[in-house]
Amino acid sequence: MNQVKGFKFHIVTNVFKGIGQIMLQENSLTGLFFTLGIFLGSVSMGVAVLFAALTGTLTAKILKYDQKEISKGLYGFSPALVGVALIFLFKNEVLIWICIFLGSISAAMLQHFFIKRKIAVFTFPFILVTWVFVTLLHQFTHIAPSDAFMSVPDLSDIDNFTSETNGFGEVIFQSSIWAGLLFFIGVYINSPIAALYGLLGSAISSALSFHGHEPINEIHMGLFSFNAVLCAIVFAGNKKIDGILVLLSVLICVAINIGLVNAKIEILQNAGGAFTLPFVIAAYLVSHLQKRKDKLQTRLKKYLIS
């Protein structure tokens, strides 16, 4: 009996950690705040994020992936994003839930493929799996877009602060001011410096997008900021070099984001959009730059000592 209770507790904790890992936070309380924020915007998306994160976590357990990786929530965040994305883009129908189930399994398995090879791909499994399912759904079904996707959010209450926290909200497809605030608080609970750097990344990307003459409503919604928020969180730290890495990754991310939006690539639009691709590319490039810098510093120290 105690083993059953323990198993249930660990599953719940792992699921919420997986949701927290969407913004690279290994914290179940952070995941709970994210989930509450999603439920505020949409009950269907709230159910989808829990169902998808649970499916991804159970997939990892059934396939006997490393328990430490499961406990960190590494097999929950990409499936969670797949679940929310499909419910955000399409009407709530049975076929969509089947796709969420299959997509969550696929995302967990793809995440494992890269983890085993020690390749940091961040949210790329979510992007690839969602592209495939969205393309297939557009090609072979006539399921209408969801109301959330088609609606225009109310921006009348937005001020400078909430405009930046909206960047947090849009990471998980939420346009609600309250969702953005809850997401910000969720990150702050686990890592204050990551939350504040995320806010800075959102502000920088908003300013650059404004000066790039992008649509002001989309800037206020956080559509040009959420990738920058993720970049800032990845490289957040207490050292001076961390601030430089944050700035560099945000600048690269914004350039890619604006470029992809303005290019209006048809195959990308049919697949649902770029999602977090600008973040993945920018974080990957800056991570490699960081590794090369570390190797160069090590070689210099050895040379100076010798």
TrEMBL record:
Primary localization: membrane
Key word Repeat present: no
InterPro entries from the UniProt entry: Ammonium/urea_transptr, Urea_transporter
Membrane topology: Multi-pass membrane protein
Site (Important for channel permeability): 276
Membrane spanning stretches: 32-58, 70-89, 95-114, 121-140, 171-189, 219-237, 244-261, 267-286
CC annotations in GO: plasma membrane
UniProt key word Cell membrane: yes
Family in the record: Belongs to the urea transporter family.
Name the record gives this protein: Urea transporter
Organism in which the protein naturally occurs: Flavobacterium araucananum
